[in-house]
Design brief:
globular; four-stranded mixed beta sheet; 308 residues; 9 helices; eight-stranded mixed beta sheet; UDP-N-acetylmuramoyl-L-alanine:D-glutamate ligase; alpha/beta
């Protein structure tokens, strides 16, 4: 069956203002000097979409922005990367979300204004778009306040149309780690948490036992930062290392990992190959500031995996 798109991405849209420097903010009107400031594409879902498109997948986005400069910036930047944004809702009653990120080479602190991020509703998603794609990816589950109760319903619609589904919940700012997630995960083919998220969601104290708790999910791939990643499919467990890289900014590295894993999954690569592929994508994305400035092309990934 022919499809217009490989992946439909449903999720949040916001710009990122990235401030780079080895400083710690201080109240009391203390002014500190940073090394660089970059306004770029933000949000886990948008960075994933850009990474998937960079690898050659045909991508459409379903989300919501305000009728303001940040919203227009996001639509313009996504369009320039070949991502279809016709299903993005432009709402003049709200403001587009924004994240301010203080980035160090090995860590980052994030302040996020939700704005339009939390406002996307189920009835604003063009379900006809699902029939035009092979796969649905949803990001930032815990930020999608208006949509979250209906995510199982959305996934059922996708399954009925024959799509496979992946999800990256990202961090829960409330740290409750609930919200009907287990009902949602029952409908998922690929779950892509990082180590912190996996342990919080499963209430376990090791990655291995956390993976055991999620054995009902077809594939779980867990990001371990500089230590690479681990994945499980049924009884099979595999590991892959990250690649050595002079790190400029880790913003969006996990989202680029996700894009790489979904690309490999749709290409039919085995679990070990898919995890290696994803780790290369995540590592290469740290070469420049912002989540999309250095995302990998397929040719670049193949330089590190010659037997692909």
């Amino acid at each position: 069956m022919n499809h217009d798109f490989d992946v439909i991405v449903v999720g949040e849209l916001n710009a990122d203002l990235i401030l780079r420097g080895d400083v710690t903010p201080a109240f009391g009107q203390v002014e500190k000097i940073i090394d660089a400031a970059t306004l770029t594409i933000g949000s886990s879902s948008a960075i994933f979409a850009c990474g998937a498109a960079r690898l050659g997948l045909r991508v459409a986005f379903s989300g919501k922005v305000g009728d303001d400069e940040f919203g227009r910036f996001m639509l313009r930047e996504l369009g320039q990367r070949g991502i279809d944004t016709h299903a993005v809702v432009l709402d003049p009653r709200i403001s587009t979300g924004l994240s301010v990120i203080l980035s160090r080479p090995s860590d980052r602190a994030i302040l996020t204004y939700l704005g339009s991020i939390a406002a996307l509703r189920y009835d604003e998603i063009d379900l006809a778009l699902l029939s035009r794609a092979r796969h649905l990816h949803l990001g930032s589950y815990y930020l999608l306040d208006a949509l979250r109760p209906d995510v199982p319903r959305l996934f059922d619609e996708a399954k009925a149309r024959g799509l496979t589904i992946s999800i990256d919940t990202n961090y829960d700012p409330t740290e409750n780690w609930e919200g009907g997630l287990y009902e949602t995960l029952q409908r998922v083919d690929v779950f892509l948490p990082n180590e912190t998220e996996l342990l919080a969601i499963t209430h376990e104290d090791s990655v291995e036992t956390g993976l055991d708790r999620l054995s009902g999910i077809l594939v779980v791939a867990v990001k371990l930062g500089a230590r690479g990643a681990i994945a499980r499919r049924g009884s099979q467990i595999v590991r892959a290392d990250s690649i050595p890289m002079k790190v400029v900014d880790t913003t969006g590295a996990g989202d680029s990992f996700d894009a790489g894993f979904v690309y490999a999954y749709l290409a039919g690569l085995d679990l070990q190959q898919a995890l290696r592929f994803a780790c290369v994508c995540g590592s290469l994305s740290t070469r420049a500031a912002g989540g999309t400035g250095a995302q990998a092309t397929l040719a670049e990934v193949r330089q590190f995996i010659p037997d692909l």
